[in-house]
Design goal:
Blueprint lengths: L13 H17 L4 H20 L10 H13 L4 H21 L25 H9 L6 H16 L3 H6 L5 E2 L4 E5 L5 E5 L2 H24 L20 H15 L9 H12 L4 H8 L4 H4 L1 H17 L4
Helix pairs in contact: 1-2, 5-9, 6-8, 6-10, 10-13
Length: about 325
């Protein structure tokens, strides 16, 4: 069903605006999504709302499947990447499902719309010897080197997301019992076992280095600080950009030429566990994936590794 050309257009689609604000409040408060995620959704929905205003749609229950399809086409014409358009469409699906759930709309116009075809990409993974080279490249003769080694060991040893690593608190370390408690996406807690190397360097950092870093903050007049484990040189919690810079410095020192992102440590954690024979559902639990299909991407990495071994060593590879 196609929408006729509107004869009049409201400047501000108030009902759509209100429904968007309700949805953003829902994902922020009820679902506990991060401020960054909510901001991204707000930006996507603002673009969508502007499009709906241009075509004369002033109520959320008047949005048709043809409107959504036309909007998706307009984003591709605007030369957004297929991956960006797929992300925006995912946001629209969540919004329209919310409208149906709350009774603001009778049906979901995104239900039968497929996203753009995406090229299959595998996560960036370091080989075990590259992980060892990365850790060995850290100069631990100074306090910040000890901190960096502890961060890298913890990030790889527990397969943490960057946000989880940087928000990890002292209270959630249970090193005597060899596990940590992590607050993941959607404010979901999970328990993750950690190995002896991560424990060894975390104990050294917590006992010998962190008190001195925390003292820098109090001397600088900062308010009483947090229980966050990893601090910067000024005694404040590390930022994502700060961690990225630290990681890149050690990647260069290790002579690693592959592209290494903060998430690479998490990808490597999962891949190395599966290569070693770990159960997929156990890895899913440790990673905090709600859907096992998300974890299954790492089995593809494992298959690629096996194919590379075959090509390299089989006489007819």
């Amino acid at each position: 069903m196609k929408r006729p050309n509107p004869t009049s257009r409201q400047k501000t689609p108030t009902a759509v605006t209100e429904s968007i604000e309700e949805y953003l409040g829902y994902i922020s408060i009820e679902r506990g999504l991060s401020a960054n995620t909510v901001a991204s959704y707000r930006s996507d929905l603002a673009s969508y709302e502007r499009y709906l205003e241009r075509v004369g749609v002033d109520r959320p229950d008047k949005i048709l499947e043809d409107d959504v399809r036309a909007y998706v086409r307009s984003r591709l014409v605007a030369q957004l990447s297929p991956r960006s358009v797929a992300r925006e469409l995912s946001c629209l699906r969540g919004y329209h499902r919310f409208l149906v759930f709350t009774g603001a709309a009778g049906s979901d116009p995104t239900a039968d719309i497929d996203g753009p075809r995406l090229p299959k990409t595998l996560p960036d993974v370091l080989a075990v010897h590259e992980i060892e080279a990365l850790f060995d490249a850290v100069d631990v003769s100074g306090p910040l080197g000890v901190r960096d080694r502890a961060m890298l060991e913890m990030g790889y040893g527990a397969g943490l997301r960057v946000s989880e690593l940087l928000s990890l608190t002292i209270a959630n370390l249970f090193l005597d019992d060899e596990f940590i408690l992590v607050m993941g996406k959607g404010s979901k807690e999970r328990i993750i076992p950690i190995g002896r190397k991560a424990i060894e360097w975390t104990l050294r950092y917590r006992g010998d280095v962190r008190p001195g870093l925390a003292a820098h903050a109090s001397h600088g007049g900062a308010s009483a600080l947090t229980d966050v484990l990893f601090l910067n040189a000024r005694g404040r919690p590390l930022s994502r950009m700060g961690f990225w810079k630290i990681l890149q410095k050690h990647v260069v020192c290790a002579g690693i030429r592959e592209r290494v992102k903060p998430h690479t440590l998490r990808h490597s954690f999962a891949t190395h566990l599966l290569e070693g024979g770990a159960d997929l559902r156990a890895v899913q639990e440790m990673l905090g994936h709600s859907d096992i299909s998300t974890t299954q991407i790492y089995t593809s990495v494992d298959r690629e590794y096996l194919k590379e071994i075959h090509r390299s060593f089989h006489p007819r590879g």
